[in-house]
Amino acid sequence: MGLFETGRQRLLGTLLAGALSLGVTGCAKRYVMIQTGMFPRPMLFEDALEWTRQASSVVQTMHDFEAAEETSYGSIGTLEGLHKLVPENEDGLVLLTRAWAGIAFAFMDDAREDALDHKDEQLAAYHEARAREAFKRSKFFGTELVNLRATGFKEAQKNASTLKAWLTENYTSKGRAEELLWLAFSIVGRVAFDLDNPETVSELWMGIELAEHSLRLDETYEFGTGHTMIAAAQAGLQDYTGSKKHFDRALELSGGNVLTAHVTMAQRYYCPKRDKKTYFELLNHVIEAKDPNPEQRLSNTIAKRRARRYLGNKYWQEDCAFEG
């Protein structure tokens, strides 16, 4: 059991889905029209991206899965267009790294799982390919941003020691934890959807190293999301001691109110350990939770959606080899 061997269960990380949708017109050379109430307001492209980044967290307060999905898909073309016009804008690169990784995890993987629920392997393969390419695109934008910060990123990727040294020298600000975490997620997420490609799998160590440095900068970002990501990867590598430590820290930082950590722990930790009792307890806890964190309502809605799926269809428990 683990991260590398199953096509049924994919790495469950966390989500920050997309950005707000914007209405774009060609009224001026470097302006975008933002629809605010009844009247459009002109903004510089850079200002539009900054405004969108500041406001993007509102998507996480949404309870409706389908509405969030439409919002996220609706925004991505606008973000791509604005990035084309101001390619070195930091806000645009962060938004695109987050959005493509979030869409892959939240919506493309959900479509894949739904197809498997209905025993449509061809459709599942289609959505798996979509998610793989979305994570790849997320990595592209995340790498572009890192290369704007400092030179030598590619050369630093010789091994974990050289990368850690490079990150320690060039990433010292707490505010940079966000971009490193989403770049890490793009790498780890792509590995989960491209297990037959040795070149992709060989980058897993880099994703983990980026996530660990993100935690060194700010482990509280997104309520300990980085800990959940590393915990899942370590469980896949059968380092259950290290995995449990990170899961426990993620739950501590979130106060247990970010339900993705519970679902991930059930699937990545208690499933391979064949602990049926705790597996079911965690998933039932997720389903029964009311609205534990309004700031993470969308993530929790997705966690509930997956918990119901994993409990309702024994297909998702086959690799757990539960007895009785």
What are the key terms here?
about 325 residues, mainly alpha, Serine Threonine Protein Phosphatase 5, Tetratricopeptide repeat, two-stranded antiparallel ribbon, 2 strands, globular
Write structural notes for this entry.
There is one protein chain. The chain has 324 residues and is mainly α. The chain has one domain (31-320): Serine Threonine Protein Phosphatase 5, Tetratricopeptide repeat. Helices cover 62% and strands 4% of the residues. α9 packs parallel to α11 (260-270). The two termini are 19 Å apart.
Layout of helices and strands, plus pairs?
Blueprint lengths: L30 E6 L2 E6 H11 L9 H21 L4 H28 L3 H29 L10 H11 L6 H16 L5 H4 L2 H15 L6 H12 L3 H15 L5 H11 L5 H13 L8 H16 L12
Antiparallel strand pairs: 1-2
Helix pairs in contact: 1-3, 2-3, 3-4, 3-6, 4-6, 5-8, 6-8, 8-9, 9-10, 9-11, 10-11, 11-12, 12-13
